Amino acid sequence: MNHLTKLACVGLLAACAALLSSQAPASGQPEESGQEDRLPSGKSQREEILKAEHKQSLKDAERLSELAQSLKSELEKNDWSVVSVSSIQKTEEIARLAKRIGDRLRGR
After folding, report:
1. Which domain holds residue 83?
2. How far is the C-alpha of 94 from the C-alpha of 92, rounded, in Å?
3. For residue 22, is it within any domain?
């Protein structure tokens, strides 16, 4: 590639980047119009949703902690060559809870 071709490629990339940055956000969320939805009580709907998600994440984290402690106790009691169905179920629930909390924190 000669110097002019490289320069043209860089210019094309810069134009694409400028075009993409001028479009609406790619997060799937609408742009803020300066007015947010309000509940009949006058509170911000978004703020109330975030509070409820935070409260649910705390409950899920508590359950996650309980499951992890229970799993640890089971594993300590059992022989290294024996894995109980209960232990496997607990690991699956731990994974589900962790994913749910992570998704909530990422805003999905």
Report:
1. 64-108
2. 5
3. no
What 3-state DSSP class applies to 44?
strand
Tens of pLDDT, residue by residue over 45-101, are 888 888 999 999 999 999 999 999 999 999 888 887 878 899 999 999 999 999 999
User: Could you tell me if residue 91 is inside a domain?
Assistant: yes
The pair of structure tokens assigned to 70 is 């229970």
Tokens 């975030």 belong to residue: 50
Inside any domain, residue 72: yes
**Dist CA 64 CA 58 (whole Å):** 10
Checking if the pLDDT of 34 tops 80, the result is no
- Distance (Å, rounded) from C-alpha 94 to C-alpha 100? 10
Structural element, H or E, at residue 38: none
| 1-10, 29-38, 56-65, range with the lowest pLDDT | 1-10
In a domain, 86, yes or no: yes
